[in-house]
Amino acid sequence: MPITNASPENILRYLHAAGTGTKEAMKSATSPRGILEWFVNFFTCGGVRRSNERCFREVIGKLTTSLLYVNKDAFFDGNKIFLEDVNGCTICLSCGAASENTDPMVIIEVSKNGKTVMDKVDSERFWNVCRMLKLMSKHNIQQPDSLITEDGFLNLAYKDFQGEDLSEIDASDADFRETNLSNVNLVGAILCCANLHAVNLMGSNMTKANLTHADLTCANMSGVNLTAAILFGSDLTDTKLNGAKLDKIALTLAKALTGADLTGSQHTPTPLPDYNDRTLFPHPIF
């Protein structure tokens, strides 16, 4: 599921309360119910826009530290994450069981003085945000240099993620301008409408990546494995694709190839797509 462009009114209220807001607004924002709403907004929106408000920096820090000791499989298998003493509250994050027709949900419980308030968020969206927090910690990306743009999308521009494992990441609409993504595992990544202008993708594995309407202008994609990737509407103007593996893709569906360097690239005819094969179309394009 994509990290969406959303700006709930509560987020603005929390930002205001943390800065120049009234004592009443601050009290509301940091009450158990206010903290719960902040957590739900945080994971629903992929992170609070410009998330450096004073009263929640500590929360993000504690969550990031906890994530160093809990991986996705362990969390989904029943391990819980506890955050103690958040304005006198205890926060418990746990994964509920999946029902027959729905994916598992993450349960957020905020307790204080024997009373508990609870809500749920989508598990995959939750872990996508957790993944970003771990990435911030690993690469020492500070809160003022937020991973969220003013429009609410992932901001990964001008970073160095060489050799990272970003497989199956959902970074639709993300800003990767001039970022170093060389030798990165991007297998199955969803990069619809992402800004990948002038990125370094040399040697990366982008098998089955979804690059629908992505901006790849001036990108260095030398030696990239793009087998079965989706390039529908993508802009490859002045892109370096020399030595790239382009099997099972339809270059003709790209928006533009003007000036693209295809020297030494491998390209085999594209078979008719099986629209019932979800592995070829990990993200709807309509």
From TrEMBL:
A cellular component term, taken from the record's GO annotations: host cell membrane
Record bears the keyword Secreted: yes
Compartments (UniProt record): Host membrane; Secreted
Keywords: Host membrane, Membrane, Repeat, Secreted, Virulence
Residues annotated as domain Secreted effector protein PipB2 N-terminal: 29-136
Broad class of the protein's primary localization: host cell
InterPro entries, alphabetized: 5peptide_repeat, Pentapeptide-BTB/POZ_domain, PipB2_N
Pfam family, one: PipB2_N
This protein's name: SPI-2 type III secretion system effector PipB
Organism (species): Salmonella enterica (Salmonella choleraesuis)
Source organism phylogeny: Bacteria, Pseudomonadati, Pseudomonadota, Gammaproteobacteria, Enterobacterales
